[in-house]
UniProtKB/TrEMBL annotation:
Residues 62-177 form the Phospholipid/glycerol acyltransferase domain. GO terms for biological process: phosphatidic acid biosynthetic process. CDD domains: LPLAT_AGPAT-like. Keywords: Acyltransferase, Transferase. The keyword Transferase applies. InterPro entries: Plipid/glycerol_acylTrfase. One of its GO terms (cellular component) is plasma membrane. Signal peptide: none annotated. GO terms for molecular function: 1-acylglycerol-3-phosphate O-acyltransferase activity. The lineage of its organism: Bacteria, Bacillati, Actinomycetota, Actinomycetes, Mycobacteriales. Pfam families: Acyltransferase. This is Phospholipid/glycerol acyltransferase domain-containing protein.
């Protein structure tokens, strides 16, 4: 595949950018943060290849679903929208975070989406409204970083929200992010190549389980393509802790990663229970 530089990123030679989305281009604060992140990546030589950005709509709403292997994924998932019309991604976050001083205000300014799980099925309503208003909403169906760097269990929220809102569900695979900053591994903030690949929208049937299975299948295809390209052009990761064990690396297996997550969750619940008990004694 012939590649070229476009706005600081590597893109396919035939990719053509489009005019900026006028409504989102005027959001100075969020656009300023995106610009700052781009400059930081360029200075740190985080070399990002973006493929498939043309699958992102120029103006209308869409749900972007990405795999989750590192803390930089929030920035990386937004590279395609940035290239294709200076679009912005509204990410879903716990409602409690929006109550944190300063941070909560900034999240609201950037129109990120609060999710109150206590509301049950109604918890997706803010995301549906945001999509119907013509925004891009980002979600990680695994809901947490996958320590195995394989696709872990997917929740059905992305499929349910996109279908209810009547918008495209666009799969995205990010590969290389785990080398920058992830759980349990050393950080490397310089000289790391990353590939971000977007696919065509998943055809939604309204069956959330079936649609989620198809989303995961499509994301696996994108991930396989990016891994092959990464090995050819950058690093095959043999014997490295950032590579899945099934591909010659030393990362935890899916089962080992699930066990670590279960242990951490139990520890968090124990801490919450102990804190609640202390409050009752007072």
């Amino acid at each position: 595949m012939d590649m070229r530089r476009y706005r600081g990123f590597l893109v396919p030679g035939l990719y053509e950018g489009i005019a900026a989305n006028r409504d989102e281009a005027v959001e100075r604060f969020y656009q300023g943060l995106v610009g700052a992140a781009r400059r930081v990546m360029r200075t740190a030589k985080i070399d990002v290849t973006v493929i498939g950005a043309e699958n992102i709509p120029a103006h209308d709403g869409a749900m972007l679903a990405g795999n989750h292997t590192g803390y930089a994924d929030f920035i990386l998932l937004g590279t395609g929208p940035y290239l294709h019309g200076n679009r912005l991604v509204r990410f879903m976050a716990k409602a409690s975070v929006f109550n944190v001083p300063v941070l909560g205000h900034l999240l609201k300014v950037m129109k990120h989406v609060p999710v109150d799980r206590a509301r049950g099925g109604d918890s997706i309503a803010p995301a549906v409204d945001m999509l119907r208003s013509g925004n891009l909403v980002g979600i990680f169906p695994e809901a947490t970083i996958s320590r195995s760097f394989e696709l872990a269990h997917f929740k059905t929220g992305a499929a349910r929200i996109a279908h209810q809102a009547g918008v495209p569900l666009i799969p995205c695979a990010i590969w290389g992010s785990q080398r920058i900053w992830t759980k349990d591994l050393p950080k490397h903030f310089r000289n790391v190549p990353v590939i971000v690949r977007y696919g065509e929208p998943v055809q939604l049937t309204g069956d959330a389980d079936a649609d989620t299975t198809e989303l995961k299948r499509r994301m696996q295809l994108l991930l396989d393509a990016s891994r092959a390209q990464y090995a050819d052009f950058f690093d095959d990761g043999q014997g490295e802790p950032w590579m899945p064990v099934a591909l010659g690396g030393t990362a935890p297996t899916l089962e080992e990663a699930d066990a670590i997550y279960a242990r951490e969750r139990a520890e968090r619940e124990a801490k919450k229970a102990a804190k609640a008990a202390r409050k009752r004694r007072k």
